[in-house]
Amino acid sequence: xxxxxQGEKLIAAYPVTIGSAHTASPVGEWKVSRITKMxxxxxxxxxxxxxxxxxxxxxxPPGPRNPVGVMWxxxxxxxxxIHGTNDPSSIGRAASHGCIRxxxxxxxxxxxxxKPGDNVSIx
Length: 123
Prior knowledge:
mainly beta; L,D-transpeptidase catalytic domain-like; five-stranded mixed β-sheet; 2 helices; 11 strands
């Protein structure tokens, strides 16, 4: 679950998908660096598998069928973010490439409750 806190008070909670055993979500303290509505997805196999960008990539257009869904919330950890999905049935499993995945309708709500500079704790 992803919890949103205002001080010590929990104000929202959303079911998520976290990183798989092979590509775990990075445990630690991070910050929201930017929020992008209707993002373009940069499919880069090297980045997804090893965390390193390559020159061999494809750009996938924005929209609900995009693998990162309708919202990208970048963290100050290269290649890691909180985002939507084109497959809401995947929520609730350890199946991402390290990102935190929410249903599109939940990531849209989340984006109204946070801003760049906010703290993100992954544990």
